[in-house]
Amino acid sequence: MVESTRTAPTAATAAEVPSVREASGDLTVVDPRDGTLVGRLPAATAADVDAALDRARRARAQWARTPAAERGAALRTIARVLRDNEENLARLNSRETGRPLAEAREGVEAGAGTLEQYAEIGPLHRGRSLVGDWSATDVMVAEPRGVVVALTPWNDPVAVSCGLVGAALATGNTVVYKASERAPHTGALFAEIVAAGLPQGVLTGLTGGGEVGVALAEDPRADVVAHVGSTAAGASIRAATARTGAKALLENGGNDPLVVDADVDPVWAAEQAALGSFANSGQICTSVERIYVHRAVADRFVEALVEQAARRVPESAAAGEIAMGPLVDRRHREAVHAHVEQAVQAGATCLIGGEMPGGLSAYYPATVLTGCTDGMAVMREETFGPVAPVQVVDGFDQGLAEAVRDRYGLAATVLTASMEHAQRACRELPVGTVKVNAVFGGAPGGAAQPRGASGQGFGYGPELMDEMTTVKVLHMGLPKQLG
To answer: GO MF annotations for this entry (predicted)?
Structure first.
C-alpha cells in the first residue's frame, strides 16, 4: 500500500497567480520561471492527519522489532528506486522551485547516498556496557523513540528528506512525513517511493500547508518533531513540543558570515564568496549571508565579486556563464528585494543587480552591495536570496567580532592563511559548523548542531541517529537461589 496523497500534475497556460495558493482544500503550484501551472494537490484534512498518526502508532512496535539489518536492506532498496526515479524527482523539483535541473539531480543523488549511509551504520548504532559489581551487568540500550513527524523544506527537498527520514527509519521509528507546500509534488512522489519499500504504516506522506504541519506538531502522538525550515515555524514547534513532551529537532535558518583575511588571494576569495552567496540562487541554509573583508584586499575582492555576479544569468549555457534559477516564488522575491532596498536607502551601494525583472518570472539577479552596516536587514537577518552584502573591516579582529555578533548559529566561513586566525575562528564563533577556506563541503556522514535562533539537535550522521533514539539502562544482578 502506498500511503500518500499525490495526484498527477496537470498542465496549464501562464496565469498571474501566486506560486502556491490554497483554495477549496487544494494546493496550486506554479512554475516560478513563467507562472505556468505545475499541478494541484489535495491538502490533507484533519481526518487524514488523525489517520496517519494512528497508522504510525500501530506500526511502530513491529518496525522497532524488525532487525536493524533488515531495516538497512529496505533503505538500500529505496535508495536504488530513488535513483531510478531521479529524472522524475529532479524535474518536479525544478518546476516547483525553479532550481536548475542539474542541481536538482545532484540533490536526488545526495539523498540516495544518505539513505545508503544509514543502511550501513544503522545496524552498528551504539550501545555500551558499564562495569560495576562483579556479579551484575549494566547495559545501555538505544531504543527508537516511536513516531517521528518529519517536516521538510523546499530548497533541497529530496536530500533533506532522506536525512531525516533515513535516520528515523534506520533506528526503528515510524514516520509521518509532510513536505513543504512549495514542493508538494516532489514530496509526494518521494513519499510514494519510500512507503512502497516499507511495511504498511511505517511511513505515511501528507500534503498540505502550514496548518497541516501545526496539527502534526501539536499532536501528543508524535514522539519527535523534526523540522527544517523557517525560524518562525521552528519557534512555534518548540512551543508545541514543550506542551506535548515530544523531542524537537530543528534547523531553522541562519545568517552565516564569511570573513576574508588580508593574506588570501582576493580573486579566489571572491569566487568562494560568489559560490556561497549565489548557489541555488542563495536559497541554501548555509548560504553566505554577510561578508566581512579586510581593507587590505577589499578593492580587488569587490571587483572580482562583481565579475562573478555578472556571470550568473538565467538558465544560460553560454561559455563562461553560470546558470542561475529563479527564486522559489514572487512573494519570496519581494522579501529579498525589500532587504536590498532597505540597505540602499540606509546608505549601501548596489554595484550590480538589485532590480526586479518584469514578467511572471520570480528571477532575481545576483546582487552585490557595499558600504553595508550592522543596522541593515541584509546583515542581521537571513535574506535567503542571491545577495552578497559586503562590509569592509580594518582587521581580522574586527571581522571576527562582527561575525560573532548575531542571534543565529548555523555556520560560518573564514578564508585565511593564518593557523592562529583559523583556530581563533573555530573557538570563538558560536555556530554549529566552522568552515576554513571552503564555503561548502564536508565528509559524508558529517553532522551539524545549530545553535541560537538556528535551531537545536544534530542533523545527519550517527549523531542524528542518537537524536532519533532514547536510552534505556538495564541493570542485571544475580538472584538468590532457593536452598
So the answer is: oxidoreductase activity, acting on the aldehyde or oxo group of donors, NAD or NADP as acceptor
- Give the active site residue among 251, 289, 382, 402: 251
120 is catalytic: no
329 and 461 in a single domain? The answer is no
Tell me if 448 sits within 8 A of 433, measured CB to CB. yes
Residue 27 belongs to a domain with what CATH number? 3.40.605.10
Residues 299 and 383 in one domain: yes
User: H helices within 171-230, ranges in order?
Assistant: 184-196, 210-218
Cell numbers standing for residue 191: 513519499
**pLDDT (tens digit, 9 = 90+) per residue, 324-346?**
999 999 999 999 999 999 999 99
Question: 223 and 95 in one domain?
Answer: yes
Does any domain span residue 483? no
Which is catalytic among the residues 285, 372, 381, 382?
A: 285
Q: Is residue 385 part of a domain?
A: yes
Q: What is the pTM of this model?
A: 0.93
Q: Do 262 and 237 reside in the same domain of the chain?
A: no
Q: Supply the mean pLDDT for the chain.
A: 93
Sorted by sequence, the CB contacts under 8 Å of residue 47 that are 6+ apart come out as none
Q: State the cell numbers at 25.
A: 482544500
Dihedral, CA of residue 156, residue 158, residue 160 and residue 161, to nearest 10: 140
Cβ(336)–Cβ(327) under 8 Å? yes
Domain containing residue 224: 20-252+454-472
The whole-number pLDDT of residue 317 equals 66
Residues 6+ apart with CB under 8 A from 21: 27, 28
Please give the C-alpha separations between residue 136 and each of 129, 142, 471, 474, 481, in angstroms, as whole numbers: 11, 20, 19, 10, 15
Q: Name every residue whose Cβ is closer than 8 Å to that of residue 108 and which is 6 or more positions away in sequence.
A: 82, 83, 85, 86, 89, 90, 93, 158, 159
Cα–Cα distance measured from residue 466 to residue 311, given in angstroms and rounded to the nearest whole number: 43
Structurally, the chain folds into a number of domains equal to: 2
Q: Name residue 289's amino acid.
A: E
382-400 average pLDDT score = 98
91 & 231 share domain: yes
The answer, yes or no, to whether residue 92 has pLDDT greater than 90, is: yes
Other Cβ atoms closer than 10 A to 407: 13
Q: What is the DSSP string of 243-290?
A: HH--EEEEE-----EEEE-TTS-HHHHHHHHHHHHHGGGG-STT---E
On whether both 248 and 268 belong to a single domain, the answer is: no
251 is catalytic: yes
Look at residue 246 and tell me if it is in a domain: yes
Residue 391 and residue 289 share a domain: yes
